[in-house]
Amino acid sequence: MTVPILLNQMRATVKLSAMRPEMEALKDQMQNSMDPQTMMENQKKMKALFKKHGVTPFTPLKGLVIQGPVFISFFLAISNMVEKVPSFKGGGAFWFTDLTTPDPMYALPILTGLSFLATVELNMQEGMEGNPMAGTMKKFSRGLAVVTIPFTASFPKAIFCYWITSNLFSLVYGFVLKHKPVRKFLNLPDINPPSDPAPAFSFGGLKNPNTSISAGESEPIKAERRISSSAVMSQRIRNLEKQVKGRNKSKKR
C-alpha cells in the first residue's frame, strides 16, 4: 500500500538532488544581495525552479506524512477487532494463542522494536539521499524504536502481529529496491549522497560538496562580510544625509 508512496518519494529526491547547483547559486545571490528588489526576484526564481521540476522542499517527507495516518487507521481497526471478533481469542500460535491480551513474555514488543530498528538502519536512506533532514530523522527513528518497547508492552498481541509483519515487509522491499535491475525497471536512478551534508533544517542551507571551508577560515570570512555590510550601510546613511542637507539648502534659497 505504501510502496507507490515510497517510489514517488524517491523520484522527488532525485529531482531535488539535480536542482542543488541552481538552488545553491540562487541562495548565494540572496545572501550577498542587499537590494530588496533583487532578493524578491531571486525568490521568484527559486519558486519557478521548484515549479519547473514539480517538487517542493517537503516533497520527500510526503511518505512519512502519509504513512502515519495509515498506521493509525490499521491500529484502530485491529483494536476494534480485538474487542468484537471472538476468533481472536484462539487465533494465534505458539505462546500467543490469545491475540486479545498483552504478551506476558514481552517477546512481541521486543521483536517489534528490533524489526523497526533494522528497518531504520538498512532502509532509512532509501528515498532520502541528499535530504539534509535524513540524519536527524534517522536518529529520531532510532530513539523511537527503543522507546516503543516499554510503551507498547500493554498492547494486545494482535497489534504486534500486524506491526512485525509490516516491518518485515518494509525490510524486504527495501532490499529489493537496492538492486540495480529493479531500480532501472522502476526508473529510479542511483543517487550519490553528498560528502558534506548540510544542517538538517532547510534545503536552503545545503553546502556545495566541491568546496570546503575549515572552521578557522570561515570566521575571518564572516567578519569581513559583517564589516563590508556595515561599511555599505554607513555609506548609504551618509549619502542620505547629504541629500537631506542639499534639499534643506535649496528650500532656504
UniProtKB/TrEMBL annotation:
GO cellular component: mitochondrial inner membrane
Main location group: membrane
Source taxon at top rank: Eukaryota
Region annotation (Disordered) ranges: 209-253
All residue ranges annotated as the Membrane insertase YidC/Oxa/ALB C-terminal domain in the record: 2-177
Biological processes, Gene Ontology terms: protein insertion into mitochondrial inner membrane from matrix
Cellular location(s): Membrane
Polar residues bias locations: 228-237
Keywords: Membrane, Transmembrane, Transmembrane helix
A molecular function GO annotation: membrane insertase activity
Topology of the protein relative to the lipid bilayer: Multi-pass membrane protein
Keyword set includes Transport: no
PANTHER family per UniProt: MITOCHONDRIAL INNER MEMBRANE PROTEIN OXA1-LIKE, OXA1
Similarity section: Belongs to the OXA1/ALB3/YidC family.
Protein's name according to its UniProt entry: Membrane insertase YidC/Oxa/ALB C-terminal domain-containing protein
Organism: Asparagus officinalis (Garden asparagus)
